[in-house]
Amino acid sequence: MTTGRPAILGLALVTAFAIASAYGQGRGGGGRGAPPEPPQTGRAGAIFDMTGYWVSVVSEDWRYRMMTPLKGDYQGLPLNAEGKQAADGWDPAKDEAAGEQCRSYGAANIMRVPERLHITWQDDQTMKMEIDSGQQTRLFYFGTPPAQGGNWQGVSKAVWDATPDFGVNPRQFDFAYARQGSIQGGSLKVVTTKLKPGYIRKNGVPYSANAVVTEYYDRVVTRNGDTYLVVTTQVDDPAYLTQPYRTSVNFRKQADASGWNPSPCTAK
Question: N or C: which end of the chain has fewer CB within 10 A?
């Protein structure tokens, strides 16, 4: 890891959550006979503010996220026979020679990479997420996506979900000590398709071009005032997985760009 990488924090930091949310204004017409109001843009209808700088909190799967696992280590992943065969053939030197050292930085795995995020609004219908590790950029489209896909980040369609169903698939909220907190509000739901094939674990565990990545983003606040972004991800890929692969990771809000360290992708 390069210097300036995210600090490794314990689970004790993530305690007693209360999602800090603010619902958008009511939709619909202004009264009988009044013309309907135009649909809100993604920015105007935001349930909460995701903008700013965020840093990874690596409190689970440390050995898979902070280091590159050994070849053939796909413990905990629901791989089918084809997936295991592909993982067993991992060759990082071959990836480098082919200019594909970013295979583990695609949308199906990028949020698990130790990193910092910079989130802004590119326009009223497009949220922009810049990621320093691998120098990746994700665009979340609230309108009709203009992108064609076929790259590492694919095409991401976003909606604000004001009625989350905590604890029901694909959501997995399993935080220690959360019982003392309250959960309110909704989430940002992002569905990504049209991906370039890549890795869901850096040691060559594959996902295919037909993989579908579904994410829920939640903004939470601890008792001491720290703000976190919780990202719950589900990868569906019948080509290599026997069942959906689900993970949850946390990011802590930063006051500024301290530690921001754009660095290229690495194959190993």
Answer: N
